[in-house]
Design a protein that fits this description.
The chain is of the alpha/beta class and 348 residues long. The protein has 2 domains: 4-252, TIM Barrel (Alpha-Beta Barrel); 263-327, Non-ribosomal Peptide Synthetase Peptidyl Carrier Protein, Chain A. It has helices at residues 26-34, 47-51, 57-61, 81-94, 108-112, 123-136, 155-170, 193-203, 217-227, 243-252, 263-281, 283-297, 304-312, 317-327, and strands at residues 4-6, 9-11, 15-17, 39-41, 45-46, 72-77, 98-103, 143-148, 175-179, 207-211, 231-234. The longest helix is centred in the C-terminal third of the chain and has 19 residues, at 263-281.
């Protein structure tokens, strides 16, 4: 279990939580840190949104940071290099320790607006964005990237990947996270860990974090061992399952696999998650926000479908407590949900 640094930001372990659109808000990140994540990333933010965020409480909640969650990264996505610098400075002012740039999102509406994974097809623009961000933020703030292995499986796509990968480090990037799928794949088919191994061999001492198909502690450890990457970025596998971080750390420390969380352990985290969401968003919005998390937590319960359906109907804290009282009153073993692949989270 080798710690490493992103620029001058030290991480206690190689286990981090990815940026997840619509999910990795302050409550999710805090729970990930409490359960062992060494570093977390805010959900991906549109550069133009960050610049004009104003004083709207709901908007400000998206860049809220807690004193006890450092180090934490802010991830930006956009199309125009001119828009990235002011957005990066705004995130630094908000307290983010690292600025990450999204060149990986495969969602159709993102690609259609020349953002995210689209930028892997235009190395000149992608590298101009890296330069603008690096120049805009203080020297002590690391700049990092999230990439997929290319637009598709063509040689032209591969050539552009390496141009951006090497060019970003040359322009001052401190680390690059690489997802082993192409943009064209979206989330279909396996992530190529052989490609990640080739990337790390090429990178040498430069920091590479691996991503893709990390739905269990065993998978996280296997990626580290098989590819040699410096860290693993857990994305969809962490939604509704903050225990994956501690489970991974236990295996890396040489211990036996940890059992899935018990029903009461799940109950306690669900209560804490709602409390944090309510403090950030208010009760009404927290109730709506928590439904999407709760149906992921339900996968760990011995009655996942019944619990999922009950959580879908939750609107306020009283509803939430009724579901906990009904399904989480009696303790018992939890369920291993690592095989339940989630296809709904975007921009991981």
């Amino acid at each position: 279990m080798t710690p490493f640094s992103i620029g001058g930001v030290p991480l206690a372990s190689p286990v981090v939580q990815a940026a997840l659109s619509g999910y990795s808000d302050l409550p999710m990140r805090l729970l990930a840190r409490q359960h062992g994540a060494a570093y977390t990333l805010c959900e991906v933010l549109l550069d133009t949104f960050v610049v004009v965020i104003g004083t709207n409480k709901r908007n400000l909640a998206r860049i809220a940071i807690a004193d006890n969650e450092h180090p934490v990264g802010g991830q930006l996505m956009g199309a125009n290099p001119d828009d990235f610098a002011p957005a990066a400075r705004r995130l630094v002012a908000a307290g983010f320790d690292v600025i990450d740039i999204n060149f990986g999102c495969p969602v159709k509406k993102v690609l259609g607006r020349c953002r995210g994974g689209y930028l892997l097809s235009v190395p000149e623009t992608a590298l101009e964005i890296v330069s603008r961000v690096r120049e805009a933020v203080p020297a002590h703030v690391p700049v990092t990237l999230k990439m997929r292995r290319g637009i598709d499986d063509s040689q032209a796509s591969a050539d552009k990947f390496w141009t951006i990968f090497d060019g970003a480090f040359d322009r001052g990037a401190a680390a690059i996270t690489v997802h082993g799928r192409s943009v064209q794949q979206k989330y279909v088919g396996p992530s190529s860990w052989d490609f990640l191994a080739a990337v790390k061999r090429h990178a040498g001492d430069r920091i590479v974090i691996g991503s893709g198909d990390l739905f269990s502690a065993e998978a996280c450890v296997a990626m580290l061992h098989r590819t040699g990457v410096d860290g693993v970025s857990i994305a969809r596998g962490a939604i509704g399952n903050p225990w994956i971080f501690g489970q991974t750390l236990a295996l890396l420390a040489g211990g036996p696999p940890l059992e899935p969380p018990t029903i009461h352990a799940q109950r306690d985290v669900l209560r804490e998650h709602f409390r944090l969401a309510e403090a950030l968003h208010g009760e009404d919005l927290a109730g709506r926000t928590m439904r999407k998390f709760a149906i992921k937590y339900a996968r760990l319960h011995p009655e996942p479908l019944a619990v999922r359906d009950a959580f879908i109907a939750v609107k306020v804290n009283a509803d939430w407590q009724q579901v906990l009282e009904r399904f989480y009153r009696e303790d018992g073993p939890g369920r291993d949900a690592s095989a339940d692949v989630d296809e709904t989270a975007e921009c991981a």
